[in-house]
Design goal:
The protein has ten helices and seven strands. It is α+β, with helices and mostly antiparallel strands. It has a domain of about 150 residues: Roll (FAS1 domain), CATH 2.30.180.10. The protein has a seven-stranded mixed β-sheet with strand order 2-1-7-6-5-4-3, sandwiched between helices. β5 and β6 form a beta hairpin. About 15% of the residues are buried. It comes from Miscanthus lutarioriparius. Belongs to the fasciclin-like AGP family. It is a lipid-anchor; GPI-anchor. Keywords: Cell membrane, Glycoprotein, GPI-anchor, Lipoprotein, Membrane, Proteoglycan, Signal, Transmembrane, Transmembrane helix.
Amino acid sequence: MACHTVLPLLLFLPFLLAMAATAADIAPGPSPPPELNLTSILENGGQYTTLLRLLNATRITEQITSQLKNSYDGLTFFAPNDSAFTKLRAGTLNALTDQEQIQLLLYHVLPRYYSLATFQTASNPLHTEASGSGGMYSVNVSTSTTSPLVNVSTGVVDVPISSTLFAHFPFAVYSIDSVLQPPQMFGSSHKASAPAPGQAAAAGRQKGVPKGDVAAEPSEAVEEPEGSSTNAAAAGRGTAVWMTVIVLGGMAFLNLLVSA
């Protein structure tokens, strides 16, 4: 009886295998991962208007997208929010050349994917994508078990990572509240020039600088012209001569009256 039951099943087995293979061919495979797009990540963040404008003007987003497609190590991007740019001295961005703006943005890119955990084992200094005549521009990172977990130092500013916008290999995007400033661009050579001496004195008086630190004002007394003492002495001698002449004349007139 068992043999009669198994035989029909064996007859249908090739048909069942063919149906299973057909179903496997029809079933869709896993969808490919979405294209990594820095612009979309920042737009979803909602507070990166200035950064997006700079990225579009310099076309850095295109460079980052191309590198992500061809990199085995991935990339890490530090994204300064709008508040970060307001901390810069007024006119700083406009004072930078197009090339310096590109260098500034590339200074926020690390040529490797770093999660918050892998920052703990990173060896300083970390090279960025920016470079100049002196070589690659670098940053140093320090980690902590308390918030903030990661702090980025440039030698000019110390900037903690405030939040994670995106972190899936091969791309990590971290929000920061200050712009990373490379010393090669924001060192002593980029400090504002000192005001002229006259402006400094005026500023000192306006800010209440102690009197001893401010140059003395000229006296209101009228200065005598050169040679005034000599002129006064000559005038005195002339007056004495006229008085002598008048006295002698008066005595001669009295003598005439008496003799008459």
